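Lab notes, practical 5.
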Amino acid sequence: MSYHSLKDILEKCKQEKIEFWEAILADDMNERAVSKEASMDKMKELWSAIVFSGESYNKSEHSKSGLAGGDGGLMEEYCKTEDTLCEGFVASVIAQALQIGESNACMKRIVAAPTAGASGVLPAVLLPLFQKKGVSEDKIIESLYVSAGIGQVIAQRAYIAGAAGGCQAEVGSASAMAAGSLVHIKGGNPEQISNAVAMTLKNLLGLVCDPVAGLVEVPCIKRNVIGAMNALASADMALAGIGSRIPADQVIDAMKAVGDKMDESLRETSMGGLAATPAAQEIVNKLLDKRRK
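Output from the prediction step:
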């Protein structure tokens, strides 16, 4: 991608009087030497895969470890039968994040956005908008270009992998991508998209990556829920006219600096954090015993 900062994208939008998603679309057409139709067809394929990942969830399926599965179904049923604190749309976002995360743990087809471990965040906010709020597929496709542009800038300036920068780089990046998509869908401008990205990343700055037993299940799946909730809050703040005191690109750079200083035990090695707790070690021992049998 030719853009190395969100500032560059915003300047392009201002100079050519285009929307954020159009700047990313044009860049994709140029980089891959494809037509607008070819670029959008590819994005529609990705969206179709996201829709499929949501529709194919099965609450009765569990991961081989037994650590993941069923929670998305429990949340969905709770939303229907109980007086939830997070009502309606927000509750459905929580359920969807759990379901996609569990599908990933069960080795089902998902879209890494930007990673498999954070694959539940973007679908969690987009699928309910599409299925329950009546947001058009065309608007969803546009928003995916927004999220793609945000993800590309983060990948170039910092990290998107937990092994490189902790979960702040994985779920954090996914959350920022989702927030930007939401702002676009709700009619926000490029500056508001950038502010949403900044606030989203600031909220998860320093989040460690500590998967229990080295599996992308605990606490990863539930962190997808936090990423989705963070995206909703940050998008609404940006749409309300609230800005970030620290520009988005500087927040991304700060995330990289924090990731660089993060101890190796907190970067997907399963040596620290929750992975080092007594309960986690019991899980490891049980899984090892199971493999020996």
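Observations recorded by the TA: The mean pLDDT is 97. The radius of gyration is 19 Å.
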